[in-house]
Predict the 3D structure of the following.
Amino acid sequence: MNIKQIRLDSFGPYENWTFKSGPNGVQLVYGANESGKTSLLEGMRSLLFGGKHKKYGYVSGSLELDKEGTAYHLGRQNKNLDFYSPGEPSIKDEPNQLWWYGLDKKTYNRIFGLTLEDLQGVDILNEVDVRARFFGAEGGEQLGGVVKSIETNANDLLVASASGKRRINVLIDQLQENKARLSALGEHETQYVELQQALKASEDTEAEIQNQIKEWQDYREGVEMVLRAWDTYRRSEEARRRMQQFTSPDTLDRDAFLSIDEGLREARQNMQLWLDKEEALKPENFDPNSPFTTYGQDIEDLIQQGAKWEQLRRECEEGEAYIAKVKEQLDFSRGLQSSWRKDESVPTDVNWFEGERLSKRLRTAKDQLLYWQSQAPSLQKEPKISEDSSSVDTGENSPVNTWAQQELQAVMTDIADLESRLGEHGSIRMAAMPIWLQRIGGIGAVVGVLMSLAGLIALESVLYSIGGIILLILGLGLFWYGWRLRHVDDSDVARLMRELERLQQRKSYLETQLDAPLPVASDVPNLETAAIEQRYNDEGKQLQANYEKALAEWQAWIPEGAAKSLDEDDFFSMKHEYDQYSEQLRTIEGYEKRLDEHKESLRLIEDQAVTLWYNLGVEAPVSPTELKRIYNQYKNFQQQMIRWEQKESQRKSYRMEYDNWHRKEKELLLEQKALLEKSGLSGANEYRQKLIDEDQFKQWETIYKQSQVQLDLLTPDGENKDLFYRRLREGNKENWTDELAHADQELNARKDAMANLYEKRGQIVEAMRALGSDQEQREAIQQRQELESELESALEDWATQVVIAHCMERAQQSYEEESQPKMLELASQYIKRLTNGAYTFDMWGLQDGLALLNERGERLPIYHWSSGLADQVYLALRLALAKVFSYQVDALPIILDDILVRFDEDRQKSALELLAELGEHQQIWLFTCQQQVYYMGQAIAGIDTHILQRA
């Protein structure tokens, strides 16, 4: 059984605390003094067995268990048990009753859950509970409980002492007093004598019925004995059948093979020892064949470019951010241009020479036309104009009015566009808002300075000073932001306002031209006036045609993306905006070109770094910081390489020792090969399997012998054993069960007859009581009868308990004589491991007391043991007892709290290795406050290490 998770909701110093075990068998938990290790041990004991702790009270928490591949939840909330397997009904029984045959908490604490104080002493081997559970036969748990109960019941009935106060002793004394009292009483009547005779006859009848009951009870016990022996007999037959499957012992040279095997193990251990010593010469985390040896120069070359690498990365990041910011400003400036539409792109090539020529030509044509309009002839009378006259039209349809209306419409469109741009950028709001931002920022800065001075000088408050500094920084930032808005945004808004003012002046001029009165024709014919008017109109038509041609050529030249309402006066502003945009665009292109060059240089360096990362097996992202870390590792490697080369001679000495043991290993392998060829087996594993088969043969032989011993004990006294075995072989369990039921029926019938007899005797006694000489005599007679009956029943119970106790004790002693030496032999192996081969148990001198044998065979009694050696012996005994229990019942988790404090470092390491080996089949929890034990555990396979933290 393994503990997968511990949760303590409330127990001592633990509140809502959870701990998960690792995958290995040994869980080593390190914690300083007062970190809660012993409290955790007590919590685990309480969760497994329940009960109230004398210091912390009841436990509230749970354990997640794994038993033979099945998960269980064992929870306790004060006195309430919450025990179940996920997906299965709740289990009402305690785990010790369900799985461990009633193992009590006290015995568990003496064997499995140990502190250094619990570990002391060897008197545990003499405790009745330990002997019954750990040395008893199969079912020894029930046997121990029965033996203990029988002894208690027998002692409660009778004690071998004249002054004893047990039940039978008291009844005998009371009966003697009653007889003395009756002898002193007076005369008896004849009828009373007859009643006595009748009473005697009823007693004879009672004795006859009792004999019949005894006969049927004996028969029933015989049948029950056969039924009890049935399972033992079947087990012995199974053992005999299994014995036939394996070869008989002594067919292989066990000692020679085991000697070679032990030699190989010793050689390999020493090889590993010298190899470890050689490895210990290496600096920590050092490998002479590291990639640093091959690629060290590449690291040196790359570290020289580290500053350039960081600069290139920084410049690339800053360049990308700057280009993005400049493009954003360029797009913003495009939105403020009045001559170019922001919804179309600006052309890359514009013939500005041709545009300047066309603008000048349009301006000349326009000025000539306006001058012609201002020089209109003042006529006294306007001549009559015939319908087919070709004079200039002075009405709304005249060419001049038509052009003025078109020009006015274009100017109003541009004015509306500029007003919408001013509305989008919030010119009115932006003009006033920066002033207020500057004022608020200035006030905040002044208040911040005052707060800082007050906090430092007057109030002496650090928080007050920090608040003043923060307010000062915010005020200065707000003041700068308002200043920037005023000086950056005002220039764009002012330019738009100037353009709007110019267009409004142009609009006023065109409206004035449209509203000016034209000469009115006179009704008086005047030839000279008509001639002048004719020339004036012809000249106007020519000027209008020139203007329209120049305007058409100008509008045809206007570049794509420019506003279509632009006239000749907008040429230079349009060209200025174009030049500004082109200059900014060329600046961006230059930055992008330099950024691409930097990126290419950065790519070359990073490609070199990626190659180096791959060669070194580094999985971290490529960066200058990681390069510095690798460079530091490389420098450390160089220093360790120098130390490694300085220890080369010592390493060669260790390597020579390793080679000597390696040669010995080869020699032993050759001996093993010769032994295998002699036995006709193909390999060492097959030889070991044969030895295992022999061991299994011996185990089944032991089971067979034990079953035979139990059958001998179960054979009824006076019955031939062969006849008893034949009854078992030829009998049928169902028939014996039917016979047992029939015997129960007969016994019940006799008991009913006995009850009727008792009723009749009661009537006789009642009549004798009525005929008694006096009340005192009747009471004495009744008391005597009651005392005799009670004494007879008590004596029968006592005799039964004595006989059963004798039989059980014989059975228990018989098995203990075989089981206890096996446990001590296992403990002797553990002591040898813990003391690095220095000591073993004196198995042949146990009658003289517990002692150890050193390597020279000298006996070391218990009073010569050091405290550390005693702890090692006590630990070996507990581990052996736990191992024996795992064979018979279950591999319970072993919990050890600071038991290695008196071990030296070598024996601490040996103990950890032994625990790791045992942990393959049985979970072990080891609590320690020693850091060297924690670090040793990290270096040994099969041990999970943890640091205890309650928070």
User: Anything to note?
Assistant: Residues 775-834 form the longest helix (60 residues). The longest strand covers residues 2-11. Confidence is low (pLDDT under 50) at residues 133-141, 379-397, 427-432, 518-525.
